Backbone:
């Protein structure tokens, strides 16, 4: 099994470049707002109030000019000033209306902050929860960086859409409707002119938005692709330097970065065209309305007054502004929905299937009969319900049998052929062979990380397809070549093998693995905090903690996949004694390139191209003078 990262030329199931989000994506995205429907309804009410305040303020301009300013100019020549007694009341009324608008704006922004952060949290929660149900295959065929990009970049663009684009779009629609009604009341002729000019503006903006939207989708996909490549390069930095591949890595990065730059440039180029064009169209409309309105007022058509024209000009700007906002937000919506589609791709991945019904339970033996208990006894049994309603219990022993097993990561290419082996409880079975021979694949099948194409795998006589995967894996301990530690104390990392383990059990496991000597010398001993990369520990020390983690789980079956390959010879001698104690009484599967670590195995399986070509003890295989003999004597080397 690879490390979960893909090569430069491979892609996860992201779909073709430039594919626009579909209606289902839009529907699923907006469904998250239903969790906050009452708060969102309050936002809409606040938006309506704000929009109406904008319209009323424009209409106030007509009252101010026609009722006070124009009479003032006309009566100034005669010396008879008009009555201004109502002006103060009108101004105070407008001030109150403006205050309501300001408060509504503040309230809706505060509510939207809680809605958007809540939705983003819910989406990430669902993504992460669903991700825990996905099979190993998904992580083997998708870059970790691309998956991370969906948690960060894609959810953030979605948050921006919900917090800004949706409220602004709703506000625009309400403003357009209320302003349109107000303009019709003021002047039908001028309204018709505004509608014609607005239609031209919408047509132009639609063409621009359509071109930029495709590139914004490309941008999101390219961003995820580049993040995946960066993650690969960071984790493989030592390998890059060892083989002097800095220039090749930089060249490949430049290609991906150039691709992202091209997509972002094209997207933003068209988006940047939109603002100036829309603003100038608005200015042009303002001038045309002023000219036409002035001509109509002079000619006496439509009964237009100076105040009416001033109010109409203000309303026309209010009519154009939301159209500009919607046009500019449309690209953000396209980009956010493209991100949403990538998020839903994770959520839509088929979870790991589990048809098992045999479970692992605490048990005890009474008069030679295994019975289930509700407390820990240190004895485990398989609880096997049958179709007739009866239940049988089989003591967990660690007997593993593979019968004529075939397997392929793809249906058209088998990597294991007719694998048959038998491991009795307490036996140590070793797998030897070149890289790609199928050693790790066999252990992945025992864990049911992958399901076999043909044959049978039985665990204590039970077909593993009948055993629930969680219970199956709980009965297996795995120590991998690549150690994964987590940020926390050393004690926490050991306890990861069994979350309810006591401190004493963790310390005993560390001593068993041979890790106690260096942990005790750390600044805070077992309470020393280490980071997830384990950069403050040597490779050997990280491996010893990993072995202790498996030891505290105390499983009947252990899988050691190159467990000592990263440990130096001196440390290996310390570890080997602990490993022997750890393996005592357990069924153990060992994968190793160092033949010295498998010499004392009960059975050694030699694999080649997915087939077992030799099997037997060390002495038996040496006597046969076959492949194992040539490997052991150095006549043939593992590749």
Residues:
């Amino acid at each position: 099994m690879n490390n979960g990262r893909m090569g430069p030329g491979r892609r996860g199931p992201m779909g073709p470049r430039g594919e626009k989000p579909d209606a289902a994506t839009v529907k699923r995205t907006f469904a998250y707002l239903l969790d906050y429907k009452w708060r969102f309804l309050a936002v809409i009410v606040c938006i309506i109030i704000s929009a109406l305040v904008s319209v009323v303020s424009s209409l106030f301009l007509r009252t101010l000019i026609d009722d006070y300013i124009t009479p003032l100019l006309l009566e100034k020549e005669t010396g008879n000033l008009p009555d201004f007694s109502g002006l103060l009341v009108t101004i105070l009324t407008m001030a109150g209306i403006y205050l309501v608008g300001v408060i509504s704006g503040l309230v809706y922004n505060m509510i939207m902050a809680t809605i958007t952060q809540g939705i983003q949290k819910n989406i990430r929660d669902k993504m992460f929860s669903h991700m825990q149900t996905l099979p190993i295959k998904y992580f083997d065929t998708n870059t970790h960086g691309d998956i991370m990009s969906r948690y960060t970049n894609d959810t953030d663009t979605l948050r921006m859409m919900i917090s800004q684009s949706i409220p602004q779009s709703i506000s625009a629609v309400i403003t357009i409707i209320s302003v349109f009604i107000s303009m019709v009341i003021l002047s039908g002729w001028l309204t018709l002119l505004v509608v014609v000019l607005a239609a031209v503006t919408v047509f132009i903006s639609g063409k621009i938005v359509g071109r930029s939207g495709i590139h914004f989708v490309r941008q999101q996909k390219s961003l995820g692709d580049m993040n995946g490549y960066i993650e690969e390069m960071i984790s493989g930095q030592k390998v890059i330097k060892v083989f002097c591949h800095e220039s090749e890595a930089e060249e490949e990065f430049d290609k991906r970065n150039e691709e992202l730059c091209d997509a972002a440039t094209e997207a933003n180029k068209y988006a940047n065209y939109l603002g100036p064009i829309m603003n100038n169209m608005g200015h042009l409309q303002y001038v045309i309305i002023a000219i036409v309105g002035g001509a109509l007022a002079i000619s006496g058509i439509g009964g237009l007054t100076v105040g009416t024209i001033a109010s109409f000009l203000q309303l026309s700007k209010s009519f154009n502004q939301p159209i500009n906002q919607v046009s500019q937000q449309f690209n953000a919506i396209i980009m956010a929905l493209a991100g949403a589609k990538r998020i839903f791709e994770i959520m839509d991945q088929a979870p790991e299937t589990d048809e098992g019904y045999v479970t692992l339970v605490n048990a005890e033996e009474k008069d030679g009969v295994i019975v289930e208990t509700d407390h820990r006894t240190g004895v485990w049994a398989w609880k096997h319900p049958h179709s007739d309603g009866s239940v049988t219990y089989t003591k967990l022993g660690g007997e593993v049998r593979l019968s004529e097993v075939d397997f392929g990561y793809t249906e058209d290419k088998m990597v294991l052929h007719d694998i048959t082996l038998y491991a009795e409880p307490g036996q140590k079975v070793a797998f030897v062979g070149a890289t790609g021979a199928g050693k790790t694949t066999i252990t992945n099948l025992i864990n049911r990380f992958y399901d076999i194409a043909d044959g049978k795998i039985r665990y204590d006589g039970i077909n593993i397809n009948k055993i629930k995967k969680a219970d199956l894996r709980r009965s297996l301990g795995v120590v991998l070549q690549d150690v994964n530690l987590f940020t926390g104390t050393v004690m926490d990392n050991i306890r990861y093998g069994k979350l309810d383990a006591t401190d004493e059990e963790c310390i005993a496991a560390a001593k068993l693995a041979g890790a106690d000597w260096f942990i005790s010398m750390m600044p805070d001993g077992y309470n020393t905090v280490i980071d997830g990369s384990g950069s403050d520990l040597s490779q050997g020390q990280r491996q010893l903690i990993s072995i202790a983690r498996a030891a505290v789980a105390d499983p009947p079956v252990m899988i050691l996949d190159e467990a000592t390959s990263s440990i130096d010879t001196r440390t290996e001698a310390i570890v080997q004694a602990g490993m022997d104690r750890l393996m005592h009484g357990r069924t153990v599967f060992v994968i190793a390139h160092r033949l010295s670590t498998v010499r004392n195995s009960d059975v050694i399986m030699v694999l080649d191209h997915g087939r077992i070509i030799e099997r037997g003890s060390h002495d038996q295989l040496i006597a046969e003078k076959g492949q194992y003999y040539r490997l052991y004597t150095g006549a043939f080397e593992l590749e």
